[in-house]
Records
---
Amino acid sequence: MKMYISVDMEGITGLPDASFVDWRKHNYERARKIMTDEANYVIQAAFDEGAEEVLVNDSHSKMNNLLIDEIHPDALLITGEVKPFSMMQGLNDSYSGVFFVGYHARAGQRGVMSHSMIHAIRNFYLNDHCIGEMGMNAYLAGYFGVPVLFVAGDDQAAAEAEKLIPHVTTAVVKETISRSSVKSLTPKKAGLLLKEKVKLALDNRKLVSPLIPPENPELTIEFNNSGQAEWANLMPGTLWIPGTTKVRFQAKDMKEAYQAMLVMTELAMQTTFS
């Protein structure tokens, strides 16, 4: 049994705002330690339940947040940015299941630090299905035939996961008060919950099916302003839908749709005014 873990940061226990998840801010170093400890609880639980290999992908911002000298010694870690498949780098059809740890709700929804990849994004659509980064990642896992078994984060991320992925196991480590305040478990208490929920997720893994994407998905990204749409539309093969901030791309498969999303979001970040 091989397990794949994508670790984001906004949904980690106790982190309420950007001062914890931005490397330039004063709480960031504290948050890295909490994030690493949280990943370790999940890794250890996976090994305890019979996993022979655990691959961890650092999936937040510059993607070099997890402390490799403190990560579980038997795990493998993917770290650093400019990865062809970003938050899902390294996943393939040899894995038994995917865990999302430290995840958050999508843009425009209630939830702690809710967003979709970058703050220029209002919505992703796969055909007509409105999703966030969790949905994009789950569909890419489904392309490889791998189910998302477990999602940990705030209460709104858990609710989004349960709506998106039937029978998924979730662990709520903090509750949303506002987009920048939470009622949180302590890290040690969260660790106990994570271990319990990972065991449940693996016990119930046969109940969860991969989230299979459309064969030839149409990706549409709705941006917050026209400048972002202009930049995204520079990617060959895209169509800017008149009268909207939506840019559309017809992909041959989910892998191409995912990489198109990465390119368009990177281009949109070139916009200097919001």
---
Amino acid sequence: MNPHNLSIEELKQTAAQVRRDIVRMVHAVNSGHPGGSLGCTDYFVSLYFRVMNYSTDFTMDGEGEDLFFLSNGHISPVWYSTLARAGFFEVKELATFRKLDSRLQGHPTTHEGLPGIRIASGSLGQGLSVAIGAAQAKKLNKDNNLVYVLMGDGELEEGQIWEAAMYAPHHKVDNIIATVDRNGQQIDGSTAEVAGLGDLRAKFEAFGWHVLEADGNNFELLLPALDDARAATGKGKPVIILMDTEMGFGVDYMMGSHKWHGVAPNDEQLEKALQQLAVEQASDY
């Protein structure tokens, strides 16, 4: 079971706090990736505070619990904040983000031993393959829990994604829930301009996936979609959610623009962001 199981109103407050962490983390070191992190915050908060079955007594093998893998590792700020707020490590460690000898590197790695992190990620295109392997391991271990993985939509330009997309249905890996962050933006511009992705639903359905779509910035719509995804597992097909988000969601001057993919706010911009991300009881580190 989920150790938190928050209400929707509590989820909204938690998401606002996580977004405050994100902008403060990247501002402090003048580097990092706020845009995608802000856009995916509601998804992370939904998983870790409502949906996933896990324990904060972290083990690498994760037997008897749901697993999560982040393929687009550059949005590490949202994952680090979520893990800290969920109780994997102390919130004050967020202040070490991207600093020398920190466990919170710009892209997640395993050799620092940060609880919650099972693979190094950030070399795009690899996460789906890893998640499928973990899902098959769960089947071999007769572990009925699920494997979740998040990918970016620009990441779908990597060929390895489509090799994995072909593999999973063939082997009936039906205990995985993949999600694509469909924000329409990547580092060089919109995905439509860089390399149009076409009809993703039709493509994944043609490969043999069970496809759902969701609004990733609305808890009232995202949570039912995640419930539907869980209900669709175990039926012979892998499951994927095409999740529409807006890059920079929650901070008006960042929203909808690829320009905030990997740029930190300055002092004035930080203050403006924090004003927009008000919470009832802020607990900034």
